[in-house]
Design brief:
Helices cover 35% and strands 21% of the residues. By secondary structure, it is of the alpha/beta class. The longest helix is centred in the first third of the chain and has 12 residues.
């Protein structure tokens, strides 16, 4: 029989994180149905603190993350290599700040980042050919920008990820690993952020960190006292 305190923990994952819905419906969304990336929850919460209103985003790999970024950024360019998925995203995702492009899985895939001659503030490596895409990302990263490598824990079993991380390390970026659960999965993984040493994105809030989902200090003083009283003996 589960304790009341443990049941409250499960309720938080169901309601605040909506992880049950994401697993059952196979969709990356938050509790309000808004699209979120298939990153770990700690990475999503950290990234959600910043103002991307003047930032250019580039994604290797399209999905709900594309809409997540489009709602926040100046412009998002997202590359998809699967024709069927490309057609699906074209129909489902309509946003003035989102440009979804189909590119073949060969070399043209990672070279797509150079097509517009831009430097990007945030580059997400979350699709095919991650080693090659990481090498291209380093070249296309704007001063003070971030590279996001999802599923980075695969470095333990995949030479592709070893090469991807090596390529990014050569650019002297700071690696920060966010371990934890993520939407749609019943197991943990890692999303890694590689920050430029001049990284200085502005926060949307007066202080950092903000109160995350399920955080006790987001409650009023009275609610915190009631919470403590209810569960202190559980």
């Amino acid at each position: 029989m589960y304790s009341e305190k443990f049941l409250k923990f499960i309720e938080m994952w169901q309601n605040d994180f909506a992880i049950e819905r994401t697993i059952d419906e196979k969709v990356c969304v938050d509790k309000d149905g808004n699209p979120i990336p298939w990153y770990t929850y700690p990475a999503i919460e950290y990234l959600s603190q910043f103002d991307y209103g003047n930032k250019e985003i580039f994604e290797f790999g399209c999905g709900n993350s594309s809409m997540f970024w489009a709602e926040r950024a100046k412009q998002v360019t997202s590359i998809e290599d699967n024709p069927q998925w490309f057609e699906k995203w074209q129909k489902e995702f309509s946003h003035p700040k989102l440009d979804i492009r189909w590119r073949d899985e060969g070399e043209i895939y990672e070279k797509a980042i150079f097509e517009d001659g831009k430097k990007y503030d945030v580059i997400i490596v979350d699709g095919k050919r991650r080693a090659e895409c990481a090498e291209a990302a380093v070249q296309a990263l704007a001063e003070g920008g971030i590279i996001i490598l999802d599923d980075s824990d695969r470095i333990n079993t995949s030479q592709e990820y070893v090469k991807a991380v090596e390529a990014i390390h050569q650019a002297d970026l700071i690696q920060v690993d966010f371990y934890g659960f993520c939407p749609m999965n019943n197991y943990t993984k890692t999303t890694s952020l590689f920050l430029s040493r001049s990284f200085n994105f502005e926060s949307l809030y007066k202080v950092q960190p903000i109160n995350g989902l399920g955080n006790l200090w987001s409650m009023s003083r009275r609610d915190r006292k009631d919470f403590y009283k209810k569960f202190k003996t559980c």
